[in-house]
Automatic annotation (TrEMBL):
It is found in: Cytoplasm; Nucleus. Belongs to the pICln (TC 1.A.47) family. This is Chloride conductance regulatory protein ICln. PANTHER family: CHLORIDE CONDUCTANCE REGULATORY PROTEIN ICLN, METHYLOSOME SUBUNIT PICLN. Pfam families: Voldacs (PF03517). One of its GO terms (cellular component) is methylosome. The gene is LOC115703859. Keywords: Cytoplasm, Nucleus. Its main location: cytoplasm. GO terms for biological process: cell volume homeostasis; chloride transport; mRNA cis splicing, via spliceosome; spliceosomal snRNP assembly. The lineage of its organism: Eukaryota, Viridiplantae, Streptophyta, Embryophyta, Tracheophyta.
């Protein structure tokens, strides 16, 4: 997935044509809206053009210059809303914030750039201005539906965690053989045995420690039972 807004000129068909979609990833065209101007950051509006909304991205293509167009994936949109406040922008529009993958300070510098310079890697705001403001609500609903089709990806859990809680019989046996003094177990602090281990080796020792202590309790009970039996005879 490309991050941020990018140039887009892949068209098919005659005249202004339509954007080429990624059929291999099941991308479908959802809506076509002619007569839309696009505003990138604080740059002047670019018009006229046609807005294409697919199941994966938003594409704006110029109706005049066939090589001129922009695209942004829905996954790169952090916010979209209907703006009708003339103090925010003179024309009613769809306002969108774009994630660029760069530092916020670098992105904010784009607002102070000259209107003649367009660095798409620093564009964090986009406005789409339809010729008919009554179309805004419909466009917003389509934006919402397509955004739901593109949820934020969830990072998979690592196959190997920092603490491995599974041990084989051989591993346990090796740890027992390494310990020469069985009394070592009784002198250790058991408060850090489960949930606070520092690796497989330490955890294996902790498990063995509990097992051996359990065996000692059993031996003590048997000895007490034998003593009591002898005293009654």
């Amino acid at each position: 997935m490309a991050i941020g807004i990018r140039l887009f000129s892949e068209r098919v068909g005659e005249g202004a044509g339509q954007p080429v979609l990624d059929a291999d990833n099941a991308e479908e065209l959802i809506h076509v809206q002619p007569g839309v101007s696009i505003v990138l950051a604080n740059h002047p509006p670019q018009s006229p053009g046609t807005l294409y909304i697919s199941s994966k991205k938003i594409v704006w293509l110029s109706d005049v210059e066939r090589e001129k167009g922009y695209a942004v994936d829905f996954l790169s949109l952090s916010l979209h809303a209907v703006s009708r406040d003339p103090e925010a922008y003179p024309s009613p529009c769809i306002y969108a914030q774009i994630e660029t993958g760069t530092d916020e300070e670098e992105s904010e510098d784009s607002d102070s750039e000259s209107a003649d310079i367009l660095d798409l890697s620093k564009i964090t705001e986009m406005r789409l201005i339809p010729s008919d403001p009554n179309q805004l609500d419909q466009l917003f609903e389509i934006f919402c539906e397509c955004a739901e089709l593109n949820p934020e990806p969830i990072e998979g859990k690592r196959e190997e965690e920092d603490h491995n809680w599974i041990f084989s019989a051989d591993q346990l046996g090796n740890d027992v053989a390494e310990i020469e003094d069985p009394d070592w177990f009784t002198s250790q602090n058991l408060t850090n045995t489960i949930g606070h281990s520092n690796g497989d080796h330490d955890l294996a020792r902790s498990v063995l420690e509990l097992q051996i202590n359990d065996q000692r309790f059993e031996d003590a009970e048997e000895m007490e039972h034998d003593v009591n039996s002898s005293s009654h005879q």
